[in-house]
Amino acid sequence: MNEQSLVLIKPDGVRRALVGKIISRFEEAGLKILAMKMLVAEKFLAENHYQLDETWAQNVYAKTKNSYEKDGKKFPYKSALEYGRTIQSWNMKFLCEGPVIALVIEGPHAIEIIRKMIGSTEPRQAPPGTIRGDFAAIESYAVADSKRRVLRNLTHASDSPENARREIALWFKPEEIHSYKSAHDIYLEHVENSKN
Ligand code: ADP
Q: According to a count of CB atoms within 10 Å of the terminal CB, is the N or C end of the chain lower?
């Protein structure tokens, strides 16, 4: 039940001075920070983080096509893999553009909860109350694609336990990941041990 997720505050989040606000949301939800650092990603790291596989490309293609069609616009791209390759190259450029904050965050169902807290990939569709919906709502596929650049949506979070394991190993050495009891852990222990 306890899961770990790799969370990134991407260069737009750092430049827009949203680091504290974004991290507070995870802390306030009761999730635990196990590791955190600021760095400028090297090309090999960005390349390995945004691995191009067919399922991911199909998914990116379908999500973007849907959004175009909702606006009554024709989606001009034909090949999902080609489209995925373009987005991957934009992503790599963006990730290396300035400092990022990388975190390992832990908690019960952490992967699902953090994905819910960051909101939809397209901030325009992310509900208020989510990180993308509150801080980046004016970003859309249409705007990003017309400028041939990535969607600036502030955060990345692992979308499955397998990807979380791969991404955490990519960004952190084992000795950079800490183990401690948070106030939340102590509170829960107290509740479980108390007779009331
Ligand atoms: P998520 O970050 O929500 O897991 P994806 O894995 O589908 O989303 O895509 C990775 C990142 O690629 C997104 O966060 C976004 O920054 C960028 N991206 C995805 N699709 C597009 C697109 N059509 N145009 C521009 N950027 C995109």
A: C
| Crossing angle between the packed helical segments 19-28 and 110-118, to the nearest 10 degrees | 140
What's CA 74's distance to the chain center, in Å? 28
**Which residues are annotated as catalytic?**
156
The CATH number covering residue 182 comes to 3.30.70.141
pLDDT tens column, 61-95? 999 999 999 999 999 999 999 999 999 999 999 99
List residues bridging with 128 in a β-sheet. Answer: 130
In this structure, the dihedral spanned by the alpha carbons of residues 138, 142, 145 and 151, taken in order and rounded to 10 degrees, is 30
Domain containing 33 equals 2-195
Structural domains counted in the chain: 1
State the distance from the centre of ligand 1 to the C-alpha of 50, rounded, in angstroms.
10
CA-based end-to-end distance of the chain: 25
Return the residue matching tokens 């509740």.
Answer: 191
How far does Cα 72 stand from its chain's mean position? 29
